[in-house]
Design brief:
By secondary structure, the chain is an alpha+beta fold. The chain is built from six helices and 13 strands. The radius of gyration is 35 Å and the shape is elongated.
Amino acid sequence: MMIKQIVLLVILFISFNSINAQTLTELENRRSKTEENIKITSKLLDQTEKEKEKSINHINLLRKQLNLRNKLIEDIDQQISLLEVDIRNKGLLVSSYEEDLRNLKKEYAKMIRFAQKNQTDMSILVFIFASSDFNQAYRRLRFYQQFLKFREQQAIDITNTKRAIENELDEIAKNKRILGKSKDYKSMEIVKINSEEKNYTSIVKKLQQNEKQLRKELEDRKKSMEILDKAIREIIEEEAKKVAAQKDDKVRDARYLQLSKGFVGNKGKLPWPTTSGIVVSEFGEHNHPVLKGVKIMNNGIDISTNIGDKIKAIFDGEITKIVSIPGQNIAVIIRHGDFLTVYSNLINVQVKTGEKIKAQNVIGEVYRDSKSEQGTFNLQIWKENNKLNPMEWILP
C-alpha cells in the first residue's frame, strides 16, 4: 500500500513539476523581454533628458517605463510564488523518499539476517534436497533464486533512492538561491519604480501648466490624422471602383489574392517596422497623458525609436500612395491585397508610388524632433474600411 502511495505521489509531482518548470521558463522569457524593453525605453529617455521643456513623447516614454516595471514586478511575484510552491513540493517528495528509504533498509536488514542464517552453499543444498518431492525442490530452488534477485534489487533501490534524495535536495538549494535573488531584484525594482513615479508626477504637473499649448498640439494632430484618414479612404474607394468596373466583386488577380492570404496567415508574426523601438501610444481611445478628462483616439500605434532609424515594410506589397501631411511629415501607404499598412511621420522616403516592395525593405527614416531629439512614428493597419490593432499583427 505504501509503495502505491509513493508511486502516485511521484507521478503527481512529476506532472506538476513539468507544468511548473514550463511556467517558470515562460516567465523567465517574458521577464527577459520586459527587461530588454526597459533598456530600450531607458536609452530613449536618456536622449530626451536634456530637454528644457519636457514633451508629450517624454511623458509617454516615462509612462511606458512605469508600466514595464510594474509588469516586471508582477512576473517576479509569480516566479517567487512558483519557486516557493516548488520548494515545498520537493520537500514533501524528499520526505516520502526518506520514508521509503527507511523501509527499504528495514527489509534489506531482514534479508541479510535470513542470509546469515543460511550462509553456506551446503545449507542451501540441504534445504533443497530435504524436499519431499521434485516439485517442492524446484519451488525451493526458485524461491532462493528470486530471493537473491530481490536482495540485489533492494540494494539497487536503496542506492537509487539515496541518489534521488540528493538530487531533490540540490534542486531545493538551487531554487532557494534563485528565490533569494528574485526577492532582492524585486526590492531594487520597487525602489526604481517609486523614484520614477515621483519624476513622472512632477513632469506631468509642469506640463499641465501649459495646457493651451498642449491643446493646440492635440488639435494639430487630430487634423493631421483626418488628412491621413481621407487619403486612406480615397484608396479604398478607388479599389472599390476598380472592382465595380469588372462587374464582379470576386475578381482579383493571383498576386492580390496571394498577398491577402499571406498577410492574414502571418497575423501575430509580422516583423517590426524598426530595428529597435517601443510602443508609447497604443491603438484605440485612451486618456490624454496630461490633460484631465481629455480622450485621444489613435488609429494605430506610436512607436518611439532611435534618431535616424530606418522604417521598413512589414509585408510584401505595392506602394499605393505617398502623402505629405502637416504635422506628420510624410506618410507612405502600402497595399497588401485586401490590407493596407500606413507609416507616417517619415522623412527621406526611398520609395515611389506604384513600386513593388518586399517585407523589410526600407521605406524611409523616422522624423527627428529637434525639440525632443526623439523620433516617433505612427503605424496603422486597415482591412478596407476597418482599422485593426497593429499589436495583434506584429511580433510581440
